# Entry
Amino acid sequence: MNSPAMATSLLSPPLLFPLLTSLFPRHCRPLQAWRSEPVLMLNRNLVSMSKSRRKTVVYAVNEGTEEELKNVVEVDRLIDVLREANPAELQKRVAENVLTFNEGFWMRLATRAETCQSEDDRKDYEELSEMLMKTVDLFVQKTDEKIESATDVLKSILKYVVDEGEEALWPPKDPHALDLLEKELIQREQEGYLDEGFLSEVNAQLRQAKEDGDKPGLQAMLQKVLQLYAARTLSKRNYAKKGNQILRPEQFLETIIKAPEDQWHKLLIEGLNVGTGDVSPDEFDAVINKRIERTLMRTKSASYQQRVLIEYVEEIQSRAEEIVKLLRSK
# Structure
């Protein structure tokens, strides 16, 4: 059974990025729909366009803040790159700059089209707009499919502990359900499904369950999924052996990492020398901090994977500190 401390530490970190579908409203239409009122443009600078060998105009607005001017320059550079890109390169550029395609981008693209000096240039911008719309829609569609796939994977893992139509109970009624859940998780991991999208889905479900406030069983199940993921991922690297030597504090940490969370209390008492073991609290704390450092170096910064793994190790550290404080006070 999960402790309140563990339930708090891994429950629902804030989303690191907005849903992509919110950036690309479905009401967007090709460039013609973004007609805007004439805007006074100053400092018109002609640049050559190697693709069509025609002249195009790049406008810079002298009004507004320095930050606004900087944003306009950056958007103009991206538009120029997109104009020169072939279809394959266009897909790559869209993926690389996905967060840039907001309302400000489309309005700037429309402004450049409106103020073209030739009808040919205007047509080029309209064609670019249509291609970008299609590419962005395709990108959003693929993203939606990936989110749905992550949801299906999570459902397949939880099917052994969730009875359809019934309230989620924890621990599950079937004593073998947890073993089946773990086997399914391992299978999905081997198939490559436990990626960042999957972790994002688990965290989203956890946050929703916490906000609802009436699904403690579901919270515990999702919590268990993250614990199993963290334990398996962290256990793939063994730091207990150094040549022919066994590093006892590292070996003890790896034992805790692999163990179910409800066994940590007993194992910590048996392993630390403030209890009946042979590892000092300082030694144990040192190897935990070293493991945190290694994990930070080997995972992508601010990723869900990094967050889950670090919080798992930090929870072990917190439990150890509680045990040491309790035993020393006796």
User: Anything to note?
Assistant: The longest helix spans residues 119-158. Residues 1-63 have pLDDT under 50 and may be disordered.
